[in-house]
Specification:
Helix 7 crosses helix 10 and helix 9 crosses helix 10. By secondary structure, this protein is of the alpha/beta class. Strand 11, helix 7 and strand 12 form a beta-alpha-beta unit. It has two domains: about 160 residues, 3-Layer(aba) Sandwich (Rossmann fold), CATH 3.40.50.2000; about 140 residues, Rossmann fold, CATH 3.40.50. About 30% of the residues lie in helices and about 20% in strands. The protein is globular. Strands 1, 2, 3, 4, 5, 6, 7 and 14 form an eight-stranded mixed beta sheet that branches. A six-stranded parallel beta sheet has the order 10-9-8-11-12-13, with helices on both faces.
């Protein structure tokens, strides 16, 4: 099967393109948001190829995976024909929650795939068919050692997103230990006691996370981060804000999960000061991460793709309006 998918979330797409199909990612001269092409810091297989809009018009595409509302119109323009489609909703709803209507609500011709049960619960999708396919990740090669008395955070755009990603909480933990923040758009983060690492490649980031004593997860209102799952797979103990999907997937015994930030700070102090306790918590985290096996993720997607293409639902309409 040849699948058209935009490069939106590189970590999620890395798992998706491991499915054994042929994948086409749009590329534009400026490599902007709707034409980034292949990821440059993630290991994508050769089955992922770039194509310009003109090249897409000449390709036989079997399925479109949409991830943003604007992509439906782009697919209509660039493909020039009707193609089965599904829509992956990566995010928690914004606006008047819990009344937020999904942009593709009441669309019986398409399936919305949520990445967490929490997101599925909170979005109002009307009569649009929905499924939940939880994340899957390849188990990172490094294993937690925790030899550095430092705290690791992975986040994207923490300055712009602010309270959404819990950026205002990071400084509370520098009294416990130095905090290292990895991600995209972290260069502008200026907090005493915090060191930033802008857009590291995946292998480097995994290696460095494994050396930190604990992993800190502070978002108030985001979907479940793949970096959190990867850290758990490595055996990192986790201290996390109890928001959205986190309480459902991170056992308290994996470190600490709470909406009480003072309690999280004290838990971080305990784990920093007690490597043996950190190691025990990390073992719990690693066991809990087993539900996010890549094989299960790919199997779930294979079942959905088979259903969608068989009954020809979710068609990207290409006729004139």
């Amino acid at each position: 099967m040849r699948i058209l998918i935009w490069h939106v979330h590189a970590a999620w797409t890395t798992a998706f393109v491991a499915g054994g199909h042929d994948y086409v990612v749009p590329v534009l001269p400026d490599r902007g948001p709707f034409g980034r092409g292949r990821a440059r810091t993630y290991p994508w297989p050769d089955s992922v190829v770039e194509a310009t809009p003109a090249e897409l018009a000449e390709l036989d595409v079997d399925l479109v995976v949409l991830q943003r509302p604007e992509e439906e119109e782009l697919a209509r323009q660039w493909l020039g024909r009707a193609v089965p489609a599904v829509y992956v909703e990566h995010n928690t709803p914004k606006g008047d929650v819990p009344w937020t209507r999904h942009p593709l609500a009441d669309r019986p011709d398409i399936t919305i795939v949520h990445v967490t049960h929490f997101n599925s619960l909170m979005w109002d999708c009307g009569t649009t068919p929905t499924r939940v396919i939880e994340h899957g990740v390849a188990v990172p090669r490094p294993r937690w050692t925790g030899e550095l008395r430092r705290i690791a955070v992975v986040t994207n755009e923490p300055v712009r997103r602010g309270r959404v990603t819990g950026t205002d909480l990071i400084g509370r933990f520098t009294a416990v230990a130095p905090v290292d923040v990895f991600g995209i758009g972290v260069a502008g983060l200026d907090i005493p006691g915090v060191t930033v690492y802008e857009d590291p490649d995946q292998a480097t980031m995994h290696r460095e996370l494994a050396r930190r004593r604990l992993y800190l997860h502070l978002p108030r209102w985001t979907s479940l981060g793949l970096s959190l799952i990867e850290a758990m797979h490595m055996g990192c103990p986790v201290v996390a804000v109890a928001a959205t999907e986190v309480p459902l997937v991170v056992p308290p015994q994996a470190g600490a999960v709470s909406a009480d930030v003072d309690a999280l700070v004290e838990a971080a102090r305990r784990l920093i000061d007690d490597p043996a306790a950190a190691a025990r918590a990390g073992s719990v985290a690693r066991a809990a991460a087993g539900r996010f096996a890549l094989s299960r993720f790919l199997s779930d997607w294979e079942n959905l793709l088979r259903d969608v293409t068989r009954v020809a639902t979710g068609v990207v309409r290409c006729e004139s309006p």
